[in-house]
Amino acid sequence: MRVTQLNLHPAPAGISPAELFIQWPSLADIPEAVAAGGPQVTVLQAADHEKRFIRNGIDYHFIDLRECASARARGRRVADLLRGRLPDVLHIHSLACAEEAHAMAQLLPSLPIVLQDHADRVPSWWRRTPWRRWMRSVDAVAFTAAPLAHRYEVAGLFPSTMRVLSIPESSCRFTPGSREAARALVGVTGSPAVVWVGHLNANKDPLTVLEGFARFAVDVPKARLYCVFGSTPLLQAVRGRIAADERLRDRVQLIGKVPHEQVEALMRAADVYISGSHAESCGFALLEAMACGATPVVTDIPSFRELTGNGAVGRLYPVGDAVRCADALFAVSRHPTPRELVREHFQARLSFPALGRRWASAYAELDTARRLRA
Question: What is the pTM of this model?
Answer without folding.
Answer: 0.94
